[in-house]
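S.,

As promised, the alpha-D-galactopyranose run. Input:
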Amino acid sequence: MKRVSKSLLLPLMVAGLHSLAMAQASPTAPITLPPMGWSSWNSFSNTINSSITIAQANALHNSGLQKAGYVYVNIDEGWWLGERDSGGNIVVDPKAWPAIQPGERAGDMSNIARYIHSLGLKAGIYTDAGKNGCSMYPDIGPAYFHTGSEGHYEQDFLQFARWGFDYVKVDWCGGAKENLDPDFQYGEIARAIAHAEKITGRKLYFSICEWGRQSPSTWAPGVGGTDQAIWRTGGDIVAPVVAAGPHSERKVSLENIFRNFDANYHPEAQHTGYYNDADMMVVGMPSLTPAQNRLHLSLWAMAATPLLIGADLTTLNAATLADLTNPEVIAIDQNPLGLQAVKVAENGSGLEIWSKFLSASGERAVLLLNRTYFPAPMSVAWKDLGLTGSEASVGEVWTGKQLAAIKDKYNATVPPHDAVLLLVRGTEGTFAHYAPDPTDKASISSETRFSDIAATPATFVQVRINYRNPGAETRIAALHVNAQAGTRIALLPTGSNTSSAWIQVRLDRRGNSNQIRFTQTANVRIESIDVF
Ligand code: GLA
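Predicted complex:
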């Protein structure tokens, strides 16, 4: 253990945090940001087909959404009916997925992938880890069995890559029914994806959809060594809605928005490039008010969770489009550190202050969240955000109002069931630098320990992990804090440089007796950590 004291570091820190953060080289593999785009499920469920997908892709392209960063067009469940040919290949309905351009063959999913790519967008597809998919909604059409990939992992993921898809969501309906082990199955799928990439050169972004039932925060980050992944943390935000169909009366609800936001709270697992997935959004769907749309976007951006629009894009009005493309909201979601907001204070029951640590020194995204049924005076103090100094500038994100040199805290009256989203720019607080315990030869040991870490009053602290991964592959280390349940952290290749990944941990022991251990570090070198 070698701890550089806060007091020693303070002058260096205050003056030099920004340059310290920037001095480090990026990993040699790109850090993926939370995916942004559109997904078919919330508005079209099992009725998805080629013409709907084309209309949605066109709307994404023409509405300003693509320019703002929404690039995925994700085809969810319902695109195939569970039939395979004698070679085990998925049979695609030629009527639902006809030729789009001259010379194409009907019943070939590469047609739609090509179309999506022709607009400069990326294409996503869907399957299940088990034998059967979820396709059992008899009241919105016939039930389709065998719409999962179990027994065909290599074949199916190779097919998806050959068709030209860039993204695959893998659901868990069949897996759950068969009582499979998600850590194992999703690991096998990651291997199939890597195999497909080796053969085709096409990367499939891996979206794990296990709904948080078997603690994916402990196994999903970097499962199977994948260098890009998200994992669902909760159930569906809305039941299948088919326009004018039997489900059309099922409304989206604020209750479910809050439920999914709360289930998504796993700061101990989310780390740079690897995200908890709170589900596709319902922004812009019937029955949400403009204020609720903005609240929903604020929550998703604070969580740094994927921004996948589930509404019918051809029906969005100008105000909703403006909210969805708000550059500051998107920048909060897409901040490269990838950390989710943590709750730092409460002004009273249901009156919550959330803070998201951003990459610029002294900068925080802050949400004053009023969950109650009454308007409430709320207040956030700079010290609750880990900032020092008495003054900070404040930008009110949704109104665009800029306030300079605000002293100590910000006050607002927050309407019921609503929130105020802020960008606060102040003076960064202290951090402490720790070197590994000296008994560890970090380069050869498979465990790297950092001991005698001082507790702080915060529920979660931000940890910058400074590491070197000279290999070509992303390495997965296990991370243990004190006696808490472990999680995994993915460490991208860095070449011969030192790079960093960020995560948040709870230092739940008093005094200087906290310990952070990394195991399975044989192929990487964890050089130091900085605790903010
Ligand atoms: C599950 C998933 C949804 C959607 C449906 C499709 O419920 O959680 O996001 O993919 O399956 O049936």
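DSSP finds 13 helices and 25 strands in the chain. The mean pLDDT is 92.

- D.
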